[in-house]
Amino acid sequence: MKQIIFRPEIERFDTCREFVREFCLDEQDLILTNEFIYRPYFGELSIKATVVFQEQYGAGEPSDEMVESILRDADLSCFRRVIGIGGGTVMDIAKVLAVAGEAKLDPLYEQAPNFTRLRELVLIPTTCGTGSEVTNIAVFARTRLGVKMGLVSDSMYASSAVMIPELLSGLPFSVFASASIDALVHAVESILSPKATSYTKLFGYEAVKMILKGYQRIAAEGKDARKELFGDFLTAANYAGLSFGTAGCAAVHALSYPLGSMYHVPHGESNYAIFMGVMRAYLELGEEGELHRLGIFMADVLGCPESDVWNHLEALLEQILPLKPLCDYGVTEEDLSRFTESVMTTQGRLMANNFTGLNGECVLGIYRGLWKREP
Length: 375
Ligand SMILES: [Fe+2]
Hints:
CATH topology of the largest domain: Dehydroquinate synthase-like, alpha domain
CATH superfamily of the largest domain: Dehydroquinate synthase-like - alpha domain
Order of helices and strands: EHEHEHEHHEEEEHHHHHHHHHH
Strand order of the largest sheet: 1-8-5-4-2-3
Bound molecules: fe (ii) ion
Low-confidence stretches: none
Largest sheet: 6 strands, parallel
Radius of gyration: 20 Å
Shape: globular
Distance between the termini: 46 Å
């Protein structure tokens, strides 16, 4: 059984200038990023690389159309290295740019995981959420099929994952909140996964502790307290990435995908909308084993009785980001069956990692419970 995968080298720099100097960026580098990140942090650094701004190819979650437009415009044969600087969308697309030999995404899904990396890949996260810089998965809305699906291949591991806490300083609080909740979900889902090992749990539990301690401080001192915690949150998201990179994510991600693809709810926020519903379903099915251990661990971190730990967690998260019922995103009652059908037919990769088996009836029950807020 695989214990843990450590593939990219992990680097850390205090400033973007130090990164640029150390990595000797030149004309053979393609940087994929966003203008609002590049201009303030890299704009003055006389970088000779070609820069592509992802938002010029579409907004929101990454899709096959977005990737294919970039592939059509960028002559990838000129580049020996792809550098992705951004959130989940940028990193997912950068992974494809490192392996793509043609301008279509579908052939990669058909060949996966058997394709090779054609360019070096450097990933620099600018949110504290995805952990994508250390994983081999990219997730795209496949618009021709109407589903959101993971593309997985060891060829999509970065050569280097680079942590630069300075890059988080411009994050609006709402983005910080939803990204870090995504990291918490990565940690929790991977801790509870049947593929979890003592190695992945080392990183997963530490990520949970760092994120919850950070949230407690923000809840006590106010939103600005996060500014002293960017380094911790970036590290925690990276730890969670190392944990789920081997142990996998599960039902929270699987059930959030239809919400993301049909109603364009950002990834972290859609996970948050589903998170407690899945945890409560697990608890109802029997609070045993790792779920029980996780409850004890979090009660210790939160300083609350074990019996009330999930309510405390929910209340703490509510202070960081108010939770919305699914109907507030426009989800209709009829959607719930469609969502369930989509999860049960297309998300087997994630559902295989569930703490306990969840059948279609359970999934529909979770959606129903989250659809409208209890009176
Ligand atoms: Fe995620």
